[in-house]
Amino acid sequence: MKRGNQTIKALLAFQKNEITESIVYAKLASIEKNEANRQILLRISKDEKHHYVLFRNRTNQDVAPDKARINKYYWMSHIFGLTFAIKLMETSEKNAQNNYSAFKDFPELQQITREEEQHEIALIGMINEERLEYMGSVVLGLNDALVEFTGALAGFTLALSDSKLIALTGSITGIAAALSMASSEYLSTKSEGKEGKHPIKASVYTGIAYIFTVIALVAPFIFISNVLIALGIMLTIALLIIALFNYYYAVARSESFKKRFAEMAILSFSVATLSFLIGYALKEFTGINT
Q1: How many angstroms separate the CA atoms of 133 and 184, rounded?
Q2: With contact defined as beta carbons under 8 Å apart, do 188 and 120 qualify?
Q3: What span, in angstroms and rounded, lies between the C-alpha atoms of 76 and 56?
Q4: Nearest-5° Cα angle at 206, 203 to 208
Q5: Digitized pLDDT (tens) for each residue of the chain, 290 residues in all
Q6: How far apart are CA 44 and CA 32, in angstroms?
């Protein structure tokens, strides 16, 4: 009896998940402007509702959807884009599917698993968001800014030893580098001639990503007079930016977050350490004290 109760409880949890995701897909369809994408979302919503019915036939109970989860993915799609919200929800569905294997006595679960796999294929093929079209430009801007600028600020810290001077020098260097990178992206995109990708937009995405990174990394030197403390906070901010952006990119592109995060963090901090040592060596060699 206890085993039976546990089974029903698990099936009710699966059932709640299906009706919740059915409503989420329907709400996402309501804000999707692309008609083809909207129809696919509505079809998947209908399939999820069918899955709910299959579970209800086993449990003989109705369950209420998870309203907090519905609102979470709805607003997430507004803030981070449809692709990110869907991929994050697909990850949740995969976790649910892993639990289905414990219920081999229910053949309908195999049907649900097959349909969920079809959903993922359909979703990957349907997504065409502008923000993802230009994701490469944002990656270029952030990667270059994080690697180059953490190194530059670390070098300035030992070479200049004055937080305000470091902030001023860093800001000038960062803005000039942002303009240079935006220009390079414009020329690169124009020469590639990719259909649907505009050179000006690509350069704007790259430049904005770089400038925001510069502002975030320079800020500690503006507000904190102790250069070593400011340097430590700057490196922490850089690590946070690396983590947040790579999490977004990994989810949206279905790539490994740990691998991307580790590669970028190691590269950025290695360059920063080397630049820090070079700044110290130059200061000692020239005998210049600020």
Answers
A1: 18
A2: no
A3: 29
A4: 105
A5: 344 677 788 888 888 988 999 999 999 999 888 888 888 889 889 988 988 998 898 889 999 999 999 999 999 888 888 888 888 887 776 666 666 656 666 666 766 766 666 666 666 666 666 666 677 667 766 777 777 788 888 888 877 888 999 999 989 988 888 888 888 878 877 887 666 678 888 888 888 888 888 899 999 999 999 998 999 999 899 888 888 888 887 887 777 888 878 888 888 788 878 877 887 777 677 766 65
A6: 14
Handedness of CA 157, 162, 165, 168 (dihedral sign): positive
What is the b/e burial string over 198-237, where b = at least 16 CB atoms within 10 angstroms of the residue's CB?
Answer: ebebbbbbbbebbbebbebbbebbbebeebeebbebbbeb
CA distance 156 to 168: 11
CA 179 and chain centroid, separation: 25
CATH code for residues 2-128: 1.20.1260
The pTM of this model reads 0.74
